[in-house]
Amino acid sequence: EDQVTQSPEALRLQEGESSSLNCSYTVSGLRGLFWYRQDPGKGPEFLFTLYSAGEEKEKERLKATLTKKESFLHITAPKPEDSATYLCAVKETSGSRLTFGEGTQLTVNP
Amino acid sequence: ETGVTQSPTHLIKTRGQQVTLRCSSQSGHNTVSWYQQALGQGPQFIFQYYREEENGRGNFPPRFSGLQFPNYSSELNVNALELDDSALYLCASSRDPKTEAFFGQGTRLTVV
């Protein structure tokens, strides 16, 4: 059974203080690893898809990387508007479902 | 391009009642998935529909059912509501079952 573990559960940063979120996964065969951002009471917003180890993707202050066992979401010089819950999910090669982690709640203070 | 839209946004039902939630998929998408998200947790997969056929189901009882229409919009039906069914219900659409999914804003269901 696919498993996704995210750490830390919550992270509080000062504006401009860079950090990383971790997503560890177990899957029989990885089709893709997905990162989403979710604001309170809203649906998840798609950020990135990573398909193979060594792949990296960037969007503004966010950079996602992938190894065979984990993914990192690096946040460079965050701003208060980056505050949200960041969700990681995997999809296996033979399946249709996304298996999500519990998320990391990020708070960026001005 | 219109994104994924869900209705209603909020709903309050009594235990034992039945509810129908609706989802319009993004233009060009033929796959719709439904997820249940309890407070403080990650979304849990309920089922997926691809070209009007069920294409995978999660660990939910048969009282959770759904369908997809020829225009690829979808419904989620829940019978015999229980208090634990209170959650945010998310619909996601994708170009096909293999590609990234785009979520709607969700329906907040409260069972009292």
Overview in brief:
Chain A is an all-beta fold. Chain A has strands at residues 3-7, 10-14, 19-26, 30-38, 45-50, 56-59, 62-66, 70-75, 84-92, 99-100, 104-109.
Layout of helices and strands:
The complex is a heterodimer of chains A (110) and B (112).
Chain A: E1 3-7, E2 10-14, E3 19-26, E4 30-38, E5 45-50, E6 56-59, E7 62-66, E8 70-75, E9 84-92, E10 99-100, E11 104-109
Parallel strand pairs in A: 2-11
Antiparallel strand pairs in A: 1-3, 3-8, 4-5, 4-9, 6-7, 7-8, 9-10, 9-11
Chain B: E1 5-7, E2 10-13, E3 19-24, E4 31-37, E5 44-50, E6 53-57, E7 64-68, E8 74-78, E9 87-94, E10 102-103, E11 107-111
Parallel strand pairs in B: 2-11
Antiparallel strand pairs in B: 1-3, 3-8, 4-5, 4-9, 5-6, 7-8, 9-10, 9-11
Overview features:
heterodimer, A: about 110 residues, mainly beta, B: about 110 residues, 7-stranded mixed sheet, 4-stranded antiparallel sheet, 11 strands, about 0% helix, globular
Number of helices of chain B: 0
Shape of chain A: globular
Structural class of chain B: mainly beta
Percentage of β-strand residues of chain B: over 45%
Low-confidence spans of chain B: none
Biggest contact = A-B, 24 and 28 residues
User: What's the pLDDT, averaged over the residues of chain B?
Assistant: 96
Helix content of chain B: under 10%
Q: Please state the oligomeric state of the protein chains shown.
A: heterodimer
Derived from helix and strand composition plus strand pairing, the structural class of chain A reads mainly beta
- Topology pattern of chain B, helix = H, strand = E: EEEEEEEEEEE
Global shape of chain B: globular
Computed CA radius of gyration of chain B, to the nearest angstrom: 13 Å
Order of helices and strands of chain A: EEEEEEEEEEE
Q: If you average the pLDDT of chain A, what whole number results?
A: 96
Contiguous runs where pLDDT drops below 50 for at least 5 residues of chain A:
none
Total count of strands of chain B: 11
Distance between the termini of chain A: 41 Å
Number of helices of chain A: 0
